[in-house]
TrEMBL record:
<feature type="transmembrane region" description="Helical">
    <location>
        <begin position="673"/>
        <end position="698"/>
    </location>
</feature>
<protein>
    <recommendedName>
        <fullName>Membrane transport protein MMPL domain-containing protein</fullName>
    </recommendedName>
</protein>
<feature type="transmembrane region" description="Helical">
    <location>
        <begin position="183"/>
        <end position="202"/>
    </location>
</feature>
<feature type="transmembrane region" description="Helical">
    <location>
        <begin position="207"/>
        <end position="227"/>
    </location>
</feature>
<feature type="transmembrane region" description="Helical">
    <location>
        <begin position="530"/>
        <end position="549"/>
    </location>
</feature>
<feature type="transmembrane region" description="Helical">
    <location>
        <begin position="597"/>
        <end position="618"/>
    </location>
</feature>
<dbReference type="Pfam" id="PF03176">
    <property type="entry name" value="MMPL"/>
</dbReference>
<feature type="transmembrane region" description="Helical">
    <location>
        <begin position="22"/>
        <end position="43"/>
    </location>
</feature>
<feature type="transmembrane region" description="Helical">
    <location>
        <begin position="377"/>
        <end position="396"/>
    </location>
</feature>
<comment type="similarity">
    <text>Belongs to the resistance-nodulation-cell division (RND) (TC 2.A.6) family. MmpL subfamily.</text>
</comment>
<feature type="transmembrane region" description="Helical">
    <location>
        <begin position="233"/>
        <end position="252"/>
    </location>
</feature>
<feature type="domain" description="Membrane transport protein MMPL">
    <location>
        <begin position="50"/>
        <end position="375"/>
    </location>
</feature>
<feature type="transmembrane region" description="Helical">
    <location>
        <begin position="281"/>
        <end position="301"/>
    </location>
</feature>
<dbReference type="InterPro" id="IPR004869">
    <property type="entry name" value="MMPL_dom"/>
</dbReference>
<keyword id="KW-0472">Membrane</keyword>
<dbReference type="GO" id="GO:0005886">
    <property type="term" value="C:plasma membrane"/>
</dbReference>
<dbReference type="InterPro" id="IPR050545">
    <property type="entry name" value="Mycobact_MmpL"/>
</dbReference>
Amino acid sequence: MTTTHRPGPLGRLAGVAFRHRWRVLLGWVAGLAVAVGLAAGFGGDYEVDYSSPGSDSQQAQRLLADRFPAQAGEPVDVVVHSDTPVTDPDVQADVTALLAELRTMPHVIAVDDPYTTPGALAPDGQTLQARLSLDVDAPEELPVADAELMLAAAESASRPGLDVALGGDAIRQAESGEVGSEMIGLIAAAVILLVTFGTVVAAGLPIAVAVAGLAVSSMLAGVVAAIMDVPSWAPILASLIGIALGIDYVLLMVTRFREWRAAGLSPHDATVATLDTAGRAVMVAGGTVMISMFGLFAMGLSFMRGAAVVTMVAVLIVMAAAATLFPALLGFFGHRIERWRLPIGRRRGAVAVSEGGHVEPSRGWLRWSRLIERRNILAAALGAVLMLVLAAPFLGARFGFPDAGNDPASHSSRQAYDLLADGFGTGANGPLLLVADLAGGGADAGSLPELSEAVAATPGVAAVLPPVVTDAEDAALLTVIPTTGPQDAATEDLVHTLRDDVLPAAPVDVHVGGVTAAAIDVNESMAGGLPLLIGGVVTVSMVLLLVSFRSVVITLTAAVMNLLSVAAAYGVVALVLEGGWAGQLIGVENETPMPAYVPIVMFAVLFGLSMDYEVFLISRMRESWLRTGSNARAIIDGLAGTGRVITAAAAIMVTVFAALVPSPDVVLKSLGLGMAAAILIDATLVRMLLVPAVMHVLGRANWWSPRWLDRRIPQLYVEGRPELFLPTAGEREPEPART
């Protein structure tokens, strides 16, 4: 090298890992073995409480669990529709035989008799509902195989003139199936990397690091579940993010390593230089993702905290693999980085190295960069208009929780939903459970008829079933059937009316619970925490960017651009959930409400991921700015120099998240579509158009920072000091033989 410059901590760590590559590799194998052992010995189940802490519905659920244990378990609805009255002897015999069979199924602890239970027969006499009570508290706890036994029994009982369908969240969970998103993402990533690099070795390194990170983090997810509540969808989300980040980070560093090799550095020195330059950007990018996931703690919901911790563990493992395993693998394969070239991607030829040790970007990216420079005002205006157009549908978004009415028509849960709505009214799919605490025993029980009359007289109530009182007369349960469906805004108004106006006048303490009420409470709780989430994550991320790039203007524009990316993704999801032509493209058959936790999870994930591209782009721009002092040159160098790697990274992320779109679960579908759309928008409209155009308009002001602030900000050198690693002409290592 031309200097005795001592590399930073990452560079020194890379050198150690490169030299002691066998020890590092064995260390990762041992770490995986420890993770497997911890998961086997201490791994917990993915059990979670979706209720809002301290809410009225949570208090109702606790009373149910304490006083009505059979009612507190997860229910399964058996809905039967007959062309003849369901009281006909033949129909009744078939229904009785079916219920007797279901009573013997695993996890079934009670079965209602629809012929003796009040309100179980529809007014038209051709539809009935029987409820199975399970011994599980959450849908995820019922094994899919046991749910499939129930579905098979219902299918066997159906015949011409007699339709039988099963409903409930446990059935929906079983019918949703599993999507092998991880494998789909890895296969797609391998293809994209081969096209990007054109060599098997260069393409294989990001895959190897991502697989290693996935193997360790997936084992540790079960350990986290033993400590805190973790929803069943969290490991899927964490795996996808881990795969995407692992591949993206190593993709960036492989690109930089090839540039250092082309500049003439030996494999060891190129590894050190790579981690001391691109590695710093990777650590900052990973830090922004961690900060974003910390924001989920602001929701005050246990399942959000569990999802955040599992995802943060995956990100930490990926960052550790990028800092240690990747340089160790370069110790094995770095000198073969250009080997096993395929007849795709860039053709091998003379490699031109620009200032700073970077390979000269392609002419196409240079032409695009200069076009943005010449038409910067037009490009900025066009980009802003397109982002606002994409975000516009979110203004009319309808928040709520999708239910079985949004499932595919072929699913038993959807058929049960439709049969209930036709026979009993739409409100039968979202009953409210009023749980009364009868502290005074029999004396309080005498007030129940008056309470029932008051509730029945409330506008929006279709029926109130007779109260069920415990043997000890210490609690009562009233089932209220609304006139509107569970997704209807009028049902939410009814819940508030009961809580605010009707029940406070009752002589006993009454809480409104049930799935519909719990969903309303969680929705409102998350909506209240959303401003804190956005404000906290944006503020901390801005501080990190300010320290990294020492520019107030870049920090502010980065925050605005990332918020625009998220807003545009929200608009895409809202448009699809309207169920029109856009929804039909991905299997959303009718208008569907947007669950409040979808935009929350999307924001936490996407703000961190979009910051990745911002860090990659701006770090290359700042590197050029410090070298040349020209704002225009810095923007062109940054855009042209990172265009190829950001495009490849975005293509991988889009493919990984889009693998969720075929899922029959509308929530997973929405999350997958939203994140894929956001990454696509961020990597194209934002990073390739809007950011460089706005920076050209702002000129040298991009790099402005008050002197007093500049003196107080620590110097991180997030882009590294590449000039210190460049060799002289006589020190260049000869090009390796090409194969």
